[in-house]
């Protein structure tokens, strides 16, 4: 049988201190570029990069437009490493 709960005001946590967004969402942060490919369409070529996201497995990496990724995350492209070298270093750590 259920009993009546007695409220204790000292146990209430104010939500202002927690820092939760109203939408309960967060931004995924890319960790590494794994691969690069160029797809040829009829009138243009589209460059894509395979992105490994933080807290995700290699199998869950996604293909994103290279131009968009360079605009949003330029630090991923500054290292001067080739995408194949990045893949090899990632596989050697596994």
What structural keywords apply?
single chain, 94 residues, alpha+beta, OB fold (Dihydrolipoamide Acetyltransferase, E2P), 3-stranded antiparallel beta sheet, 2 helices, 3 strands, 26% strand, disordered C terminus
CATH fold topology: OB fold (Dihydrolipoamide Acetyltransferase, E2P)
SSE string, helices as H and strands as E = EEEHH
Largest sheet: 3 strands, antiparallel
Strand composition percent: 25-35%
For the record, the CATH architecture stands as Beta Barrel
Q: Give a count of the beta strands, DSSP E runs of length 2 or more.
A: 3
Q: Portion of residues in helices?
A: 10-25%
How many distinct helices? 2
Mean pLDDT: 79
Which structural class should the secondary elements be placed in?
alpha+beta
pLDDT < 50 stretches: 82-94
CA(first)-CA(last) distance = 53 Å
Please tell me what the overall shape is.
Answer: elongated
Strand order of the largest sheet: 1-2-3
State Rg. 22 Å
How many individual domains? 1
CATH class, anyone? Mainly Beta
């Amino acid at each position: 049988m259920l009993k009546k709960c007695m409220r204790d005001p000292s146990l209430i946590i104010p939500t202002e201190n927690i820092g939760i967004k109203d939408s309960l969402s967060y931004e995924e942060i890319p960790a590494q570029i794994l691969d690069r490919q160029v797809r040829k369409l009829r009138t243009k070529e589209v460059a894509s990069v395979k992105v490994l996201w933080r807290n995700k497995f290699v199998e869950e990496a996604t293909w994103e437009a290279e131009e968009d990724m360079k605009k949003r995350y330029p630090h991923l492209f500054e290292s001067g490493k080739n995408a194949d070298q990045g893949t090899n270093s990632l596989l050697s750590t596994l």
